[in-house]
Amino acid sequence: MAPCLVGVSLKMYFSHAKTVAWCRDIAEVARAHPAVRDGAAQLFVVPTYLSVPAAVDLLRGVAMVGAQDLATEDAGALTGEVSGAEIAEVGCRVVEVGHAERRRLFGETDAVVRAKTDAALRNGLTPILCVGEAERGAPESVAQECMRQVDDALSTARAAGRCGRVIVAYEPLWAIGADAPAKPDYIRSVCGRLRRHLESFTDFEGSRVIYGGSARPGLLREIADDVDGLFLGRFAHRAEALEEVLDEVLSAQPAGTR
């Protein structure tokens, strides 16, 4: 079985010092936990840019480290931007693309998301491609909209003949920052359809679908059959909460594989 992906984006909640302390705590939990030791879970952590090198060092051997964004270009007169080439150079393996906050706060369009997805793949990074609907709807129509977003985001890379792995993070916009995630049946219905859609992409074998959007401990056991993992935010600010999720990874494994 492929490992369950458990990711955490720290957004801009922590200072650098607090991020370092958190990474130390997470590394301690991960090294001791059988879900990580035995390969049932694969962790990734996405801190702010300035904390990436420290996170890479502290989490070496227990978690992949990623960046929260990347430039569309690999080099140039682009003040304030960080390229996929540099992100990969310092040890990142994944990078967020198209998060709803980037779209809402910084005006990122579908065209920008296409360019950033291509930039990630051409630099050997796995894009964490964020997709989701603005308002609740019928799961079938929501899944169609998310599939459209995935197809559009990958279109430039596919036209260039690029391949690789993609992590699709399904995050309903209305659930981001909310008191509770989407209902388990809703998540399962949308993510199940997304998984089947990705299976048809022979040039992106090994791609996965995870759920974010106020994801928290206790959710995985209710949706594990139809997702490949969770993308956590503020509900993983305590190392103990991440440990609870890793416990769920073990309990969700089929009998005979534990």
Short synopsis of the structure:
The protein is α/β, with parallel strands linked by helices and 258 residues long. The protein has helices at 16-32, 34-37, 52-58, 84-89, 100-106, 110-122, 139-159, 184-198, 220-223, 239-252, and strands at 4-9, 41-46, 63-67, 94-97, 126-131, 167-170, 208-211, 229-232.
Q: Topology of this protein?
A:
Layout: E1 4-9, H1 16-32, H2 34-37, E2 41-46, H3 52-58, E3 63-67, H4 84-89, E4 94-97, H5 100-106, H6 110-122, E5 126-131, H7 139-159, E6 167-170, H8 184-198, E7 208-211, H9 220-223, E8 229-232, H10 239-252
Parallel strand pairs: 1-2, 1-8, 2-3, 3-4, 4-5, 5-6, 6-7
Main location: cytoplasm
EC number: 5.3.1.1
Catalytic activity: D-glyceraldehyde 3-phosphate = dihydroxyacetone phosphate
How many angstroms separate the termini? Answer: 11 Å
| Cα shape | globular
**Secondary-structure-derived class:** alpha/beta
Radius of gyration over all CA atoms, rounded: 17 Å
Residues in helices, as a percent range: 40-55%
H/E series = EHHEHEHEHHEHEHEHEH
In CATH, the topology is named: TIM Barrel
Binned strand content: 15-25%
Enumerate the spans where pLDDT stays under 50 for 5 or more consecutive residues: none
Q: How many domains is the backbone divided into?
A: 1
**CATH architecture label:** Alpha-Beta Barrel
**Mean pLDDT across all residues, rounded?**
96
| Main beta sheet | 8 strands, parallel
Q: Considering the protein shown, what is the CATH homologous superfamily?
A: Aldolase class I
Instruction: Write down the CATH class.
Output: Alpha Beta
InterPro entries: Aldolase_TIM (IPR013785), TIM_sf (IPR035990), Triosephosphate_isomerase (IPR000652)
Organism: Sinomonas humi
Subunit structure: Homodimer.
Pfam family, one: TIM
